[in-house]
Design a protein that fits this description.
Number of helices: 14
Number of strands: 11
Strand content: 15-25%
Structural class: alpha+beta
Distance between the termini: 61 Å
Helix content: 40-55%
Oligomer: single chain
Shape: elongated
Order of helices and strands: EEHHEEEHEEEHEHHEHHHHHHHEH
Radius of gyration: 34 Å
């Protein structure tokens, strides 16, 4: 067997593979002898079928199968030994006059080659790294939410501006018939609030769905319809009041603190506020880090210039899917996937240049940390190390989970690298202003 490469340009090459009878004949003969032993052909005893008949019936199929195996094994070995960084997979070139009966079989494969480029981590433009702080207003709102959540309900006869009103939404044409709870301080429509205030149990009011609630994504669940349907809805619905309650705020006392954080972990309102700041800013840090990772990614995609073997990749997309695409469909798919492919190459380059690796011991500890945080959400704050080891072993026995956790851990490693080496500028903002800046 002889394999050679013809370089077309920096991004495209053709590999030629010449296979002779000596490369495959012994293997083909062995398989055909096995077929002869097992073949059941009418008119012949088992094992006594003439080899000529076996070759006529099975010879070509066995030859093709063995040659394809040789091609796959040796082509992959060649690409590895020659350290060719290919995109997609080698594509066999069409050979209209190919003859399987020739003494020497010649094959050609097109290759798309990965481009050479550099990724300077010290970016020319400074990238913003947000430090999100919990301001006094946010902390006060959180304290009030806690007091409201753990407060007690007091029944009322007449609706007030901050009450909770149970009732039924109804609109026959849109098939809305849903019992729900309305918190008046979560309503956006002033007209809706005015319609409800002063009403009693049994009263019915008409409300407009558009602009009804502050958090619009909640409208579907309030009306008992899908989120998609609610987004397009602009109608009037009737709301019949069945119950009116005022939520009396819980006292900020030791009983509440223990219920929230465990016995004596927090002992005063001052400590409660400090704890809210600490917990909030930990969560904010995760969001700020994700924003930084996204921004660095976008910067690299926009500013790392290199060409791709677009023609080869379009052809590869055209022929390697579940069904073959037209040239136009393949070109469209390539345009959709080009940005993602560029970042895969950039990320791979950064990982290789900086020798970032995920070791199994690291992955195991990362999995245990993830499991521990999940258990804490269900009140298991101090799990035994043996229990964590056993759960981690089960998790890491699932290859999909290994892949997912490995990607998350590598993202953390990339983030740490960018924090250390990229050109960053820190900007301190409140969470409210962070959301405004992120959403433009």
């Amino acid at each position: 067997m002889n394999i050679t490469k013809e370089q077309i340009d920096d991004l495209n090459a053709v590999v030629k593979v010449a296979i002779t009878k000596e490369d495959y004949q012994d293997k083909v003969d062995t398989i055909l002898k096995d077929y002869k032993k097992q073949a059941n052909v009418p008119g012949f005893r088992k094992g006594q079928v003439p080899m000529g008949l076996i070759k006529k019936q099975y010879g070509k199929a066995v030859l093709v199968d063995e040659v394809n195996k040789l091609l796959q094994d040796n082509l992959n070995k060649y690409l590895t030994e020659e350290k060719l960084d290919v995109l997609g997979n080698p594509l066999p070139k069409q050979q209209d006059s190919f003859d399987w009966d020739q003494e020497e079989l010649d094959f050609e494969f097109e290759l798309g080659l990965a481009p050479n480029f550099e990724v300077p981590l010290k970016t020319k433009k400074a990238i913003t790294h947000y430090k999100i702080v919990a301001d006094k207003k946010m902390v006060t709102e959180q304290v009030e939410r806690i007091q409201k959540q753990y407060g007690k309900l007091v029944s009322k006869e007449v609706v007030g501006k901050t009450d909770e009103v149970s009732g039924k939404f109804f609109n026959e044409a849109e098939e809305i018939d849903n019992q729900t709870l309305l918190e008046l301080d979560k309503l956006k429509s002033k007209k809706a609030i005015e319609s409800l205030v002063g009403k009693k149990v049994g009263d019915t009011v008409t409300l407009k769905t558009k602009g009804l609630v502050k958090e619009e994504y909640l409208l579907g669940s309030i009306l008992g319809i899908s989120k998609e349907k609610a987004e397009k809805l602009n109608i009037e619905v009737s709301f019949t009041i069945t119950e009116i309650n005022e939520r009396e705020p819980a006292e900020l006392n030791q009983e509440l603190f223990d219920k929230l954080f465990g016995k004596d972990a927090v002992k005063s309102e001052k400590e409660l506020r400090e704890r809210i700041i600490e917990d909030s800013e930990k969560q904010f840090e995760q969001q700020a880090d994700q924003k930084l990772l996204n921004d660095v990614t976008e910067y690299f995609i926009e500013n790392t210039k290199f060409d791709l073997p677009a023609g080869f990749l379009t052809k590869w997309i055209q022929v390697t899917g579940e069904k073959e695409l037209s040239e136009e469909e393949a070109a469209e798919e390539y345009q959709k996937s080009e940005k993602g492919l560029r970042y895969q190459l950039i990320e791979g380059k950064v990982i290789n240049d900086n020798n970032l690796q995920v070791q199994f011991d690291e992955l195991k500890e990362f999995a245990k940390g993830f499991i521990k945080s999940q258990m804490a959400q269900f009140g298991q704050l101090d799990p035994q190390e043996e229990e964590l080891d056993n759960i981690a072993a089960r998790v890491l026995g699932n290859q999909d989970e290994v892949k997912r956790l490995s990607e998350q851990l590598m993202s953390q490693k990339l983030l740490s690298l960018y924090k250390e080496k990229a050109n960053l500028k820190t900007k301190e903002v409140t969470y409210e202003n962070f959301i405004k800046e992120v959403n433009g």
